[in-house]
């Protein structure tokens, strides 16, 4: 398959998913609250693509949720070219993706993160994943999350779940705190063995994320909570912010390749506290 067709199919899927996820969220919130949308360009002088990030704040369920789509192209800096596969000989790149971060009003409902991307240098690959960060322990929720992700992974390859779960646990770890960010999920990168199969996996993950997040939210958003639990949530969000600013690959990649800072940093919680 032609690489331009691959790029188009991937970016069209990410855009479609942005629309369907935003529709879901607006339905959950009711009629009054809508996403605020902002489009941006990577380069104001010449066409190097751009994106659209949508943010919804202060809802009855979502304290802040961001749904970001981007499709950009250009040249990596010399420093970046050394770090990115396939870019050392030719610094030209193309990248598209969707990133979603949900910070909830009710501390019983965990923060949920999802992203998938397709990057093309001299060759192309997919990356991404989803993970869940509760501030109140719920073993049933953890079991539900991992069972659903395992089922989804097994539809494609029986080895995926074990490998991608391990990668997620190792990736979402705060070395300076010696603790994991949440209850895990799956994470993968440099997925490039078979484009059709890889794309199928990425689309399946998008649909599975939608199902998992809707199920968790529906089950818990009406649960009563206390101010003490809200304070615990604020401290947990501090850890979330630490990870995203210190270690997150997507944040680093976006900022180092001239992405939109506001869109990239939409993953940060609206209020966080430190003890």
Automatic annotation (TrEMBL):
The record's EC number reads 1.3.3.3
Q: Which PROSITE patterns does this one have?
A: COPROGEN_OXIDASE
Q: Which domain of life is it from?
A: Bacteria
Task: Report the pathway entry.
Answer: Porphyrin-containing compound metabolism; protoporphyrin-IX biosynthesis; protoporphyrinogen-IX from coproporphyrinogen-III (O2 route): step 1/1
Enzymatic class: oxidoreductase
Q: Which organism is it from?
A: Pelagibacter ubique
Assembly, in brief, is: Homodimer.
Q: Which Gene3D superfamilies match?
A: Coproporphyrinogen III oxidase, aerobic
Q: What is this protein called?
A: coproporphyrinogen oxidase
Family matches, as Pfam families: Coprogen_oxidas (PF01218)
Per the record, the similarity remark reads: Belongs to the aerobic coproporphyrinogen-III oxidase family.
Keyword entries, A-Z: Heme biosynthesis, Oxidoreductase, Porphyrin biosynthesis
Under the heading InterPro entries, the entry gives: Coprogen_oxidase_aer (IPR001260), Coprogen_oxidase_aer_sf (IPR036406), Coprogen_oxidase_CS (IPR018375)
